[in-house]
Structures are given as C-alpha cells and as structure tokens.
Design the sequence.
C-alpha cells in the first residue's frame, strides 16, 4: 500500500466511510448533526461508486426523533439503493431507520 492509499484509508476512517465498499458508519445517539453527516457521506459514495448500493451501518442507543425522521426522509428521496445493517447496540430511533428500509 503506497502512501497516498494509506492517507485515503485514514481519512475514510476519520470520516466514517469505506469508499471501496460504499459503507457509511453511523454510531452514537442520533442528533441534528447526523442528518447532515449521513447526507454528505451518501453524496460522496454516490460520486465515487454511483453504480453500487450504499450500506449504512448503525450502532446507536437512540437519539432525537426529528433527526431520525430527517435521515429517513433523505434516504427515501436518495436515488441510489440503500441497505441498512446494525451491529452492536440499537434502540428506538435507529430501529425505525432499519425497519423503514428492511420492510419496503
């Protein structure tokens, strides 16, 4: 792995992204900043790999209901397929995000 690839890998980890596999990581409780976080990460994944679905990986103990609704609204209007998965903790808000996309 050359220096440029290593820098990209560290940047991806810092930003909660895995661009090679189109994965966005979302952890901690959901708040208003997560709507912007998810939308900006999804846009980056779409630019890099527009032909692949995006995988949202959640691990959260809950959070703000309005943030959850904002994330769901954004994901529904997004023109790339989104898969959701949960590893570790999930509570009320993340469960609804998962449920909304598992049972379309």
Sequence:
């Amino acid at each position: 792995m050359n220096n440029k690839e290593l820098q990209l890998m560290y940047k991806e980890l810092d930003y909660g992204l895995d661009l090679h596999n189109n994965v966005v990581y979302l952890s901690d409780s959901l708040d208003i900043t997560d709507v912007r976080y998810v939308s900006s990460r999804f846009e980056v994944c779409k630019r890099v790999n527009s032909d692949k679905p995006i995988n949202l990986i959640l691990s959260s103990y809950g959070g703000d209901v309005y943030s959850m609704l904002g994330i769901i609204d954004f994901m529904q209007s997004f023109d790339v397929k989104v898969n959701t998965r949960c590893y570790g903790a999930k509570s009320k808000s993340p469960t609804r995000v998962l449920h909304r996309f598992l049972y379309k």
Observations:
- The chain has a mean pLDDT of 79.
- The radius of gyration is 14 Å.
- The first strand starts at residue 17 and ends at 18.
